[in-house]
Structure formats: C-alpha cells, structure tokens
Amino acid sequence: MSAPTNWSPSEKMQAALKYAQSVGYEYTVTMLCREADVHPTTWYEYYDNPRFVQWWGDAFERYFAMQVPRLNAAAVGMAMGTKTTGNVTALKLMIERHDKGYMPRSKQEITGAGGAPLKTYVQVDVNGVVEGKKPEDSNGDGKTSMD
C-alpha cells in the first residue's frame, strides 16, 4: 500500500512551526517540543517523512524570504551609521541567501559565448624561446594562438 499523496501537517507540526517562527527559528528541540506538546522522539521521527521535511523546509525559506526588507533596512542603517549593532557578515550572508534579486558587484562572468565554459591554455616552449620565437608561435607558422 503506498502512502497517500495528499499529506498535510498535523496540528502538533503546525504548532511547532508557529512556535519556531515566533522566535525567529532561535530554539532548541527541547523548547520546541515543550511548546508544541511533542515528545522529542516523535519530533525526530517527523524527519523520516520526506513530505514533512519538504513542508518544514519550504516554510523556513518563505519565512526568511519575508525578512528581506528587514535585512535590507538593517544594511542601510549600518551603512548610514544609524544602526551600530549587528553582525555585518551574518547580515550579508542572509541577504545573499534569501534575496533572490541580490547580486554582489564582485560577481564575474566565467563563461564564453553561448554559456560554454572558458578554457585557458598556457603553452610554454623552451626551445621556441631559445630560438627567439614567441611561445605561442612554437610551430613556426608565424601566427599566435590569438591570430
């Protein structure tokens, strides 16, 4: 007998999620289980169910995606000097992870035409250098690899 496809979280799972989000996911399993009235063994058994894992993960992603405006406001406050507390590195990592439109200025394109990866070849021809030829012209045809 296969598992039903119309899975939905139990009331205790929903209570656990509500608690986790109310504390910004800063909880211990003991705290979570106490608040949701779930035995710790049961809590860990939930993770044997891929549907629970997917549901919990999706809710986690949604929660933090909704925090992006707060993250951006904190970043502006730090940049302007009006907010002097907080972890800049953690803030940057959270924005990079959850703001789908964020792209750091240092990002570099490393693909060629059509999205193909670029390849760099370095040719060293000791004999060519001794003979006065450019290393790229080691076959003697007068052209470099860039011609």
Secondary structure topology:
Layout: H1 11-22, H2 29-36, H3 40-46, H4 50-65, H5 68-80, H6 88-98, H7 126-130
Tally of extended strands?
Answer: 0
**Backbone shape:** flat
Structural category is mainly alpha
What's the overall average pLDDT, rounded?
78
Number of helices: 7
* Count of all domains: 3
Percent in helix: 40-55%
What string, H for helix and E for strand, traces the elements in order?
A: HHHHHHH
Characterize the biggest β-sheet. none
- Approximately what portion of the residues adopt beta-strand conformation? under 5%
Structure notes:
The chain has helices spanning 11-22, 29-36, 40-46, 50-65, 68-80, 88-98, 126-130. The longest helix has 16 residues, at 50-65. Residues 128-133 have low confidence and may be disordered. The chain has three domains: 11-65; 68-98, no CATH class; 109-147, no CATH class. It has seven helices and no strands. The radius of gyration is 28 Å and the shape is flat. With 147 residues, it is mainly α.
Give a quick rundown of the structure:
It is built from seven helices and no strands. It has helices spanning 11-22, 29-36, 40-46, 50-65, 68-80, 88-98, 126-130. It is flat and about 80 Å long.
List keywords for this structure.
mainly alpha; flat; 3 domains; 49% helix; 147 residues
